[in-house]
Amino acid sequence: MSQGTLAKRQFGHRARLALSPAGVLKTDGQAHAARAMWNLLHAWWQMMPKDKRTLANADAAIRQAREDIGFLAALPAQAAQAVLKTYFQAWKNCWDGRADAPTFKGRLRTVMSVDIPQGRDLNILRVHRRWGMVNIPKVGRVRFRWTKDLPVGKRANAENRITGARLVKDTLGWHIAFRVQTLEAKPEAHQGLEVGIDVGITVPLALSDGETYEHGEWLTAKEKARLRRLEQRAAQRKRHRQPGEPTSRRLHHTYDRIAGLRAKARRRALDWQHKTTTVIARTYGTVVVEALTITSMVKSARGTIEEPGKNVAQKSGLNRSISGQAWGRTVTMLAYKTARHGGILVKVPAPGTSQRCSACGFTTPGSRESQAVFVCKNPECGWSGNADHNAARNVLHLYRMGLALIPAAGRAVVRRAKRVKPATAR
Questions:
Q1: Closest among 366, 344, 78, 333 to 194, alpha carbons compared
Q2: Confidence (pLDDT) at 304
Q3: Among positive and negative, which fits the CA dihedral 346, 347, 348, 351?
Q4: For residues 266 and 253, what is the distance between their CA atoms, to the nearest angstrom?
Q5: For 167-186, what is each residue's pLDDT tens digit?
Q6: Alpha-carbon gap, residue 23 to 29, rounded angstroms
Q7: Using CA of residue 44, residue 49, residue 50, residue 55, what is the dihedral sign?
Q8: Within a 10 A sphere around the Cβ of 417, how many other Cβ atoms?
Q9: Dist. CA 218–CA 425, nearest whole Å
Q10: What are the 10-residue block averages of pLDDT along the chain, 426 residues in total?
Q11: CB-based contacts of 104: which residues, under 8 Å, 6+ apart?
């Protein structure tokens, strides 16, 4: 690390809350009030003329709504202001082309969350090796799992402090995500080697130097059998429900158990991805990956009534496998972790990397004999080896040849001059 150059970095740390039943009800009420506040703001926005859609008018509207609608008072005033700022930022993102226009938030499809914008309101205290205490407005003092050191007490100052938090509910219950601002030394340039990475389903990550990173099933055999039984039970109960009849408590309980097992699989996948990408970022100075259009890769092959698709079931299974690997999330983790360690992440065009021979450079039909075996059909070459490692070497070759995608261009693949560093992925 360079001792003379410091920079502020912001990151989030998520911890599980140990809320009492009464605390859960209060926090649920705040989340529902925040969602209702968003929907009221959206209705107000659509109703008002364009020249009246100002932050001051919206602030006056939500103040009046908190007085007129009783259950909105469960939401702290600062949390209501955070909803207002988030809503206006959503429109700014839409106008800048970064996101779609904001819409109404449904009760079932919306993640329950409450913002605590002021870090000084939290009053965090560590009471045990594994537990800490935090103050949640209109809920009180709540314990949370202490899994990472936080800048609190004497360790907190203007440069290293907690700036706020957000309460989020998932299948395991309520969690708190702290927003931490810290001062770090800027990393020096990573002196590690260059490596190309090929992503896949059978072999999740294959590196150009012959290294592979694999994982097993995210759920055990017993857990998968339990998930299958729960899904069958949910389908049976849903089939016997009359149209328009509300979902029974038993069916809700079944859905919760299904969501719990799926959340367990996701946590295990995240853990593997974090550990693997950290090792890669620490080891290599330049990481080269393919610029995959995953949304196009997982499109359904069902087709239309006039032109039905072919091998629909096989394509659906492939789509589920691709989505389960979460390649985009792996690349996102590599991007910020390589930057944190002084390295760079580069994206290169994806077409042809699995058909080209990395030894002779020719693309000959039929060279990839199976998922794992690549045998060059060029009579003058005849090289054979692992197909995934061959593709990873081709990915690295594209970078060394100067074919690096420029993220700002969005479409261009350019050839750079010699001794010019490639554009890094943002």
A1: 344
A2: 57
A3: positive
A4: 20
A5: 999 888 899 999 988 877 77
A6: 10
A7: negative
A8: 6
A9: 29
A10: 60 88 93 93 90 88 87 89 91 88 86 89 87 92 89 79 90 89 80 86 85 88 94 88 80 89 90 92 89 71 62 69 78 89 86 80 77 79 81 85 56 39 36
A11: 38, 39, 42
CA angle at 318 for the pair 312 and 323, rounded to the nearest 5° = 125
Q: What is the mean pLDDT of the chain?
A: 82
Which residues make beta-bridge pairs with 163?
none
Contacting residues for 161 by C-beta, under 8 A, at least 6 apart: 119, 151, 180, 181
> At residue 106, what is the residue type?
G
List the structure tokens of 130.
Answer: 């594994």
Query: Are the beta carbons of 352 and 290 closer than 8 angstroms?
Result: no
Model confidence, pTM? 0.75
Model confidence over 38-77: pLDDT tens digits? 999 999 999 988 888 888 888 898 888 888 888 888 899 8
From the list 25, 282, 225, the residue with the least C-alpha distance to 138 is 25
